[in-house]
## 1
Amino acid sequence: MAEEVLLFGAWASPYSHRVEMALKLKGVEYKYVEEDLANKSPSLLKYNPIHKKVPVLVHNGNPIVESQVILEYINETWPGYPLLPKDPYERAIARFWAKFIDDKCLLAIFKASWGEEKEREKAAEEVPEFLNHLENELKEKRFFGGESIGMVDIVANFISFWVGAFEEAFGSELLTREKFPKLTNWTHQFVNNTVVKESLPPRDKLVAYLRNRFGGRNVSK
């Protein structure tokens, strides 16, 4: 019986594109199903009845949800390109930074950009602090994963691509070369990787989408 791999995603979702990157790095063939999040399909609701969100990976009929959980599943299921280090300690450190990006960085960036005034003020102070932690973690490495792209790089795709699109859409400055030279260099290396390029949405389309969706809200400059 042929292996069946389905990915339910949304074109503007950085979380969906994380999974696409991982599958392509592993060389796994899959079928992509685009979801309309304003009119969710019966299949999405069936496979992710609790959160009702993308991405959802369905492997031989078995659904896996939450992007970081899916990345771990992909790494453990298909051999070849490693998304996490072999060493247990280094693997634990990678998981820490991946969690830090989702729990701290992305949340702060969102609040600084689109939160209520009180939230925005606090988050605007936190964003540079959190980005500076990532700047220091990069050290002299090409990627967070060392010389090759790993799970932390994939999870940080929002910072490398979506933040830039947001800056273009609203004229804001979150990630500048003066403040974060290593992160800026990493961003350039990451988005210009062949596999990553194939797994990203068109930038002009994303910029237009962000302007349309968030243009009327308070945007931090």
Note: The CA atoms of residues 111 and 182 lie 24 Å apart.
## 2
Amino acid sequence: MSNPTSNAECTAEQAFNTVGHHIIFASGSPFLDVDLGNGQIGHSNQGNNMYLFPGIGLGTLVSGARHISDGMLQVAAECLAECMTEAEVKKGIIYPSTSRIRNITVEIATAVAREAVAEDLAEGYQDKDARELQRMSKEETSEHVEKHMWVPNYAPLVYH
């Protein structure tokens, strides 16, 4: 559905009120979950690039690939789907909890980097050349990804 909110075709509440509780709702805009009564919640899933783009970018970077292939995008999407818990799926939630976003990014980046290697697109990055990347296990690739992942530690702006 359209983004920003002002361009959305309908709200989550309108969708659930019109169609009922047997729908999966996702929008590019944020909407509140909908109380469907009887203890049921209609989840308003926000379809957002924040789940895929960081992992695709990081995996491409650490592999040294010069372009992003369809295969790299496919494994990113499949990896994101695999990050869903059974409980989330049963509730009608279509994206994993944002509380796991950094772990999800590592998983996606690892999958993307390994696909770049499999497609012979990897040229290496900093301390690893293409041949070293080819010899790495999934766990070693994940460690390589984490080593190059940005950590948002900020120095205080006000000193007393």
Note: Residues 16 and 23 are 7 Å apart (CA to CA).
## 3
Amino acid sequence: MDAAKEKGEASGETSQAGKEPSLEDLLSSLNLKEEDIEGMFVAKKDVEALKEEVKWMAVMRLLSSKPFSAMSLKKTMNFAWAPSKEISFREIEENRFLVQANCLGDWRKITEQGPWIFRDHGLLIEKYDGSCRASAVELNRIHAWVRIHDVPKLYRRRTLMAGVAESIGEVIQVDMNGAGLDGGDHVRVRVWLDVRKCLTRFVAFKPDGGTQVIMRVKYEKLPRFCAVCGFLGHEQEECGSGEHPVEAVKFGEFT
């Protein structure tokens, strides 16, 4: 193996010159639609039978504009996941990967017990049943545990906190264990964070006839984010020119 090839593999870089157009781009350039292309019919029972042979898969994307070595990512995540059986791992395109577990427990851990972080970058993971191209799966969200602070005792109720947390992200679970007198003034909520939106710093509600209640939001195990724009995936030195006045830093510590 020559030095140039070895360097490319180590960094995860791919040649853009020989990159093939996507199927969508190709169809668009030819002005073709689905109805213009004939194909065979596959019965539902046959599809279900095929799904039994392709189980426990997931597609994941590293939330970073920088390319990383697929081998390094696989090694690191295998250590973090500590699977009971071998995990199959394949790079689809730059920073996008297809993984397959060999048992239900490993698959659930990978897809449901995040957030998973590699070198301070978040991994966006979605379950995958093989019914579409893995490269077409939308990967725009990541699991996160958040703490809603300054919650008045009267309003520490699961349904109310779930409703309030919807402004942070799609609610998965509300943990009230920390809401007692010995648990401080916060409630923990597990959510899907949409990485296309900036982080939420405060949430609020207004009781009928009362004054608005404003509460701080803090995040647990948050991957790299920008203190200027509040988006995940980069830091403030990588946002725009990287030069920002102190007053532009509106998203401080979240942990």
Note: Residues 77 and 113 are 13 Å apart (CA to CA).
## 4
Amino acid sequence: MEWATKAMNAVNKASNNNTVINVFLVGSFAALSIRSLNQQRDIETLEAEKDSLVKANKSMKKTIWDWKQQLYAEATSSDKPLVPLSKLKAIYGELPSIPPGEAHILQCQGPGEVHILHLAEPWA
């Protein structure tokens, strides 16, 4: 019991001593400053990586665009293209929209021919 009383007296003296409080506050400030600097370095690294990824993404988009244009040119230039222009437009989602009340059939060639029926919305 005596050691508990001594410990409580030491804590009371420390809490009333400005030097101990100031050391604790300076230590807390230093720890928070170090954490902040580490977070700032992480943010700068992530921003640099983001810029790199944005440049790579733009490059890939341009390459895909160029390939798409080349496919379209090949489909329109030859009499018997490997892939017809209508199928290319279907692949890239450039088919004209379906007018309300009309039904359209898209035929896909392949093993076991598949027919997909697209109907306009009945509520349109």
Note: The CA atoms of residues 11 and 17 lie 10 Å apart.
